[in-house]
Specification:
The structure holds two protein chains of two kinds.
Chain A lengths: L4 H31 L1 H12 E6 L6 E2 L5 E13 L7 H12 L3 H10 L9 E7 L1 H9 L7 E10 L7 H4 L2 E3 L2 H5 L11 E3 L2 H5 L1 H4 L4 E7 L5 E8 L6 E4 L3 H10 L5 E6 L6 E7 L4 H5 L4 H8 L9 H4 L9 H10 L8 E4 L2 E4 L2 E4 L7 E4 H6 L3 H11 L1 H10 L21 H8 L5 H8 L9 H12 L3 E3 L4 E5 L5 E4 L4 E4 L4 H16 L16 E7 L13 E8 L6 E7 L5 H19 L1 H13 L1
Parallel strand pairs in A: 2-10
Antiparallel strand pairs in A: 1-8, 2-3, 3-4, 3-5, 6-7, 8-9, 10-18, 11-12, 11-23, 13-16, 14-15, 17-20, 18-19, 21-22, 22-23
Helix pairs in contact in A: 10-22, 14-16, 14-21, 16-19
Chain B lengths: L3 H6 L2 H22 L4 H22 L2 H6 L1 H18 L1 E3 L2 E7 L2 E3 L1 H23 L5 H20 L3 H18 L3 H22 L2 H10 L9 H14 L11 H4 L11 H34 L3 H25 L17 H19 L5
Antiparallel strand pairs in B: 1-2, 2-3
Helix pairs in contact in B: 2-13, 3-15, 5-6, 6-7, 6-8, 6-14, 6-15, 7-8, 8-14, 11-13, 13-14, 14-15
Classes of the chains: A alpha+beta, B mainly alpha.
């Protein structure tokens, strides 16, 4: 009945269809699995495997005695991975509702990350609380693309103390990313932005690790395939003595100013304070644009490190420079004297001495001890501005000291050449009189003047100031220990060195000395006061003078050199010298054993 | 009743082929469902149930079964209507009835039911060599369109398309007058328009447009098909190995245990495995056609042909979708996809094939 011609035709047709089907599907399978197979395998691996960075913990920063100054603590950071987001508005709204982060903020952070691969995590909020972590984890399945990662975070346990020296870290900026210097960095990396965090970045940073993880379609980690552990950064030991630092900062409390304490024997920076200060912890978390603008436009400039960037006329301290130069050149000796009647007339102007009734007849020693202006007006005229300029340069006042902190400013002392070049007018001798007492266009930093104190203490040898003592690996191996580096070795005449030491001692220890009130019983501190007049901007409104004091102690075996600046503090003797006394006192108290040993030692010699 | 001769006449080759496919299907499901095997247990249970039903379906004469085909049809149709009232909702569709804790998908049984019913109504005309004219097609078309429309409303586009294709192949096999070809040709030409305007839902339209690259894909509707393609392609020549497929294990391929089950197999067994599997499937369809050709009567022949077309169209539509040749329309892969009703249906089909086969010399 069946099996007719039509049926056999139908049979052939059906067999043909089956064969064609086999061919078409085989061809497609060939195309996908053989021709495009490698490409598809790569795509499937890229789906599956994600490389996650394990940030290296940054090196710890200690003071010279092992006090922790900058540490690392675990923090939870919230990220969005655009690739894993299924529904943008759902995830963004969900996250916004859950943690109260404004929707626009999330969107703007996502927008900033455009141009990065979609599997790149975008930081939405750093350092979220444990409560927030719990909330996010509980709602994870409803928020595909949201992940929380534990990462080490910089922590400064002492808040605003030593902030200018330590500096701070924060996320690398798009501009920095483009710089050659940061070519090894990628977006999202944390870098040192200021202070030694910036200078010693390459030692502190360590080497980030990597984790190859398998993730599922919602971005959840299913297992770890491979881990390369991070190499922690190296630890820094500073020369800073945190006790001394604290004493210096407390002395400046509520004021604007700076204190620098050096060891004149090797350049170690024992304390470097600048006030007002800022809390680096707030900068690590990332400020909002408004907070940042507020900080940098603060009229008190809390971000400025006054100790190395603030330049002020040195006032009477500058007299030491003239005295040394005059002694060196034989223009003056201990017997040189002048008469001070409360000032002197020069040209058509009367230059006053600070002591209105005058010092009477003064020799060089008394002129320094009692800080007689008249004497130095005359000495200045005899030296001339260019010799002053030359000598200031010779003893390092007009160069950077080369301290291991960023953006140090050099000091400035004028010359006739400078005046001509800058203003196209010749130098007037009258201007030399101002410079001779450290007024006018003479600007020095507290660090520069501390080096001057060290110069006198050490009789002409000055070391490069160093904040960092040594770099030590996490295992305790010393990577780098900084040796004292001689910056200047000015061969002063022995007579000059002795004389100037004697005079600075007199400032503090003789009854007529300007800083006699700040003398110490158990240690012979030498010093010089300075009061820099500040030109009042408004007539009749005196803003207050800058108070200066430099010191070193003890006289015969100097262990510390100090400079103190108090902005608008008034007289150096009353506002700055007591701070130096306090610091010396606390230094002596702390190191009394050593002092005792050394004194005995010097007797034995 | 139990005749020795019948047992010796059983087409063990076709049966064996089916069992191999079932075995491959289970093996593949073990990987697809890992690590949670509660669904696998259900599937095994359904398989054992089907195995028990197999001798009954084989031995109960298909001619007697065909006589009650209208009743079977009515019962299955009622079950489909019930899905609208008591259906279990999943993925935006109501296709299932909850029966003693098992989810039953009546539309799967409709596939077999419509084959039986159409064969019953058409075999005599074919036996007489009468070609079907427009007038003869009125009732059959009504019987076809009724369940097709209901299934489409569930909505279940895939099953509706299969019902339509299988039914049309049976009509074609029964023999059609030239005028009907013309009419069907016209309808076929107009159907894309009709489908587009009246029947397709927005998400289905979007899928088609994305497939044709006419619509950009901001919400990632094409994501699933891309991931399916990656799964298949990443299998390369020898595959990643059993249980080693990452695309499905890590949930990148959606519906990987049902409509996209083939991607799991392709990823783990590679080009070699795929070609072997494809060959086994087409061999099975070929065996169905052979049974159809050797059936002792037109009724058996049409039923066997209907089953052949059912397996063929499900296979091709599923693979075309999994390999991204056609837009994603959910159709289960016979023997392989998870789903009790589909497995039971294919086992009943197998029983019916055996039934027809053992009676090939009897008149």
């Amino acid at each position: 009945m069946r099996g007719g011609r039509e049926d056999s035709l139908r049979g052939k047709f059906l067999r043909g269809v089956l064969l064609l089907t086999l061919l078409v599907l085989s061809a497609r399978l060939w195309d996908l699995q053989i021709v495009k197979g490698d490409e598809m395998r790569v795509l499937s691996e890229r789906n599956r495997v994600r490389i996650k960075k394990i940030p290296a913990p940054r090196g710890t920063i200690y003071d010279r005695n092992g006090v922790v100054l900058a540490d690392t603590r675990p923090a939870f950071n919230l990220y969005l991975i655009p690739e894993d987001i299924r529904d943008f508005s759902e995830t963004v709204d969900g996250l916004s509702g859950l943690l109260g982060i404004p929707r626009e903020e999330i969107m703007s952070r996502l927008k900033q990350a455009r141009g990065f691969p979609p599997s790149f995590p975008v930081l939405i909020k750093s350092d979220i609380s444990m409560d927030e972590v719990a909330k996010v984890e509980a709602h994870r399945i409803f928020l595909p693309g949201v992940t929380v990662q534990m990462e080490p975070k910089r922590f400064y346990p002492h808040g605003d103390r030593l902030a200018h020296v330590l500096g701070y870290v924060s996320e690398i900026s798009p501009e920095e990313l483009k710089m050659e210097h940061y070519k090894d960095y990628s977006a999202g990396d944390i870098i040192g932005k200021y202070g030694i965090e910036r200078i010693y970045e390459k030692y502190l940073r360590g080497k980030d690790g990597e984790k190859r993880v398998e993730v599922d379609a919602t971005g959840r980690e299913t297992r770890i395939l491979e881990t390369r552990e991070p190499v922690p950064g190296n630890d820094l030991f500073l020369n800073i003595d945190f006790d001394l630092q604290r004493a210096a900062e407390d002395a400046l409390d509520g004021k604007a100013g700076a204190v620098v304490v050096l060891n004149p024997r090797n350049g170690e920076v024992l304390a470097l304070a600048s006030r007002p200060s800022f809390d680096p912890n707030s900068l690590v978390s990332g400020l909002t644009d408004r907070q940042w603008r507020e900080l940098i436009s603060d009229p008190r400039y809390p971000l400025q490190n006054r100790a190395i960037q603030g330049r002020y006329p040195p006032g009477s301290i500058f007299k030491l420079v003239l005295a040394m130069k005059a002694l060196e050149d034989g223009l003056a000796d201990e017997s040189t004297s002048s008469f001070c009647g409360g000032g002197m007339r020069y040209g058509n102007r009367f230059f006053r001495c600070w002591k209105e009734k005058g010092h009477g007849r003064v020799n060089l020693h008394r002129a320094i001890v009692e800080s007689c202006d008249t004497f130095f007006y005359q000495l200045g005229l005899r030296l001339g501005i260019d010799r002053i300029h030359e000598f200031a340069g010779k003893i390092g006042l007009t160069s950077k000291t080369g301290i291991d902190l960023p953006d140090e400013k050099p000091g400035f002392v004028p010359s006739t050449e400078w005046k001509l070049k800058r203003f196209h007018v010749p130098w007037f001798e009258g201007e030399t009189l101002s410079v001779a007492i450290g007024q006018g266009p003479v600007w020095l930093t507290p660090l520069g003047l501390c080096q001057l104190a060290a110069f006198i203490a050490n009789e002409g040898i000055v070391f490069r100031p160093r904040v960092v003592k040594k770099i030590v690996s996490r295992e305790g191996r010393t990577i780098l220990a900084f040796e004292p580096e001689t910056l200047l070795d000015v061969r002063l005449k022995e007579k000059t060195a002795k004389f100037i030491k004697e005079a600075t001692s007199g400032v503090v220890n003789e009854r007529s000395g300007t800083a006699y009130a700040s003398h110490l019983e158990d240690v012979e501190m030498c010093g010089k006061t300075g009061t820099a007049q500040v030109a009042s901007l408004e007539k009749g409104k005196h803003l207050g003078d800058h108070a200066w004091f430099i010191a070193f102690a003890p006289r015969d075996d100097p262990a510390i050199a100090i400079s103190v600046l108090v902005e608008r503090g008034g007289h150096g003797a009353s506002a700055a010298a007591p701070i130096a006394k306090l610091i010396t006192q606390s230094f002596v108290n702390k190191n009394s054993k050593r002092f005792l040993a050394r004194t005995q030692d010097s007797y034995a010699r | 009743m139990l005749d020795r001769r019948r047992i010796s006449h059983v087409d063990w080759a076709t049966f064996g082929l089916a069992m191999i496919l079932v075995a491959v299907g289970f093996l593949n499901l073990i990987s697809a469902l890992s690590p949670s095997y509660s669904l696998l247990k259900k599937q095994v249970f359904v398989f054992l149930l089907g195995l028990l039903a197999l001798p009954v379906v084989t031995l109960y004469d298909y001619r007697k079964l065909a006589e009650i085909s209208l009743w079977i049809y009515v019962v299955v149709l009622c079950l489909i209507v019930l899905t609208f009232l008591f259906g279990v909702r999943a993925g935006g569709a109501r296709r299932w009835l909850n029966l003693f804790g098992m989810n039953l998908q009546p539309s799967e049984f409709m596939k077999l039911s419509i084959i039986l019913l159409l064969s019953q109504r058409l075999h005599e005309k074919r036996a007489l060599g009468v070609k079907l004219g427009p007038r003869d097609l009125g009732v059959p078309l009504l019987l076809i369109l009724l369940p097709t429309a209901l299934v489409l409303l569930q909505p279940d586009l895939g099953t509706a398309v299969i019902l339509l294709l299988v039914s049309l192949s049976i009509l074609w096999y029964a023999g059609l007058k030239p005028s009907v070809y013309v009419a069907l040709g016209l309808l076929g030409g107009a159907s894309p328009y009709l489908l587009w305007e009246y029947l397709l839902r927005p998400y289905q339209k979007a899928r088609i447009l994305i497939h044709l690259n006419l619509l950009s894909d901001p919400q990632g509707l094409g994501y699933h098909t891309t991931q399916a393609k990656i799964a298949v392609g990443s299998g390369k020549f020898f595959g990643k190995g059993f249980m080693e497929g990452t695309q499905h294990r890590l949930q990148f391929v959606p519906e990987h245990h049902t409509d996209f089950i083939f991607t799991v197999f392709a990823e783990e067994w590679g080009f070699v495995g795929c070609i072997v599997l494809l060959f086994l499937f087409l061999l099975f369809v070929y065996r169905c056609i052979r049974i159809s050709e050797s059936a002792s009567d037109e009724l058996g022949s049409i039923i066997a042909f209907g089953i052949a077309s059912l397996v063929y169209f499900q296979l091709t539509m599923n693979l075309f979708m999994a390999l991204n040749i056609l837009p994603a329309v959910g159709v289960p892969l016979p023997f392989m996809s998870y789903g009790g009703s589909a497995l039971l249906t294919i086992l009943l089909c197998l029983g019916l094939l055996m039934n027809i086969q053992v009676r090939r010399y009897m008149f």
